[in-house]
Amino acid sequence: MDIKRIAKDTAKTLQSYLTYQAVRTVLAQIGETNPPLALWLHRFSATDRIQDGEAYIENLFREKPDLALRIMTVREHLAEEVADFLPEIVRAGIQQANMQHRKQHLERITQLETNPSLDSEPQTTSETNLDNLG
User: Fold this and answer.
1) Three-state DSSP class for 50?
2) What does pLDDT average to over the chain?
């Protein structure tokens, strides 16, 4: 397992995601003040692959450098705001999700082991009502 490569790939993905969030923020801002520019940015973002945030910004610089600078500024601000909280949120989120997946898996395998005996013997209405009381 190459931890450094995984960390670099994760950072690149996070950078691209923060670019996406910055674009959404800027779109919302200019949608109120300059709807034609917002429409242009929306169309540009739909046709240019925003999954690679750095390539997206590079292409945007060729078309509208002022928007590229604005998105970079917003992206940097977002990064500063979330950087301190991110490691703990990610750890806690993964631990909680893993626990939920394990719980669901245990419930599924437990049901699989107990269901065949229940399926072979149909319950009567009174047995079903007794089960609902407990």
Assistant:
1) coil
2) 86
Query: Among residues 18, 14, 12, which one has the least CA distance to residue 77?
Result: 18
Dist. CA 16–CA 78, nearest whole Å: 12
Residues 74, 39: Cα–Cα separation, whole Å: 19
Residues 6+ apart with CB under 8 A from 20: 50, 53
Beta-carbon contacts of 123 under 8 Å, excluding residues fewer than 6 positions away, are 131
pLDDT digits (tens, 9 = 90+) for 1-11: 899 999 999 99
What own/partner pairs with CB < 8 Å and gap ≥ 24 does 76-82 have?
78/18, 78/21, 78/22, 78/25, 79/15, 79/18, 82/18
- Phi, psi at residue 58, to the nearest 5°? -60, -45
Beta carbons of 54 and 15 less than 8 angstroms apart: yes
Q: The whole model's pTM is what?
A: 0.72
Q: State yes or no: pLDDT of 87 exceeds 70.
A: yes
Contact 30, 71 (CB under 8 A): no
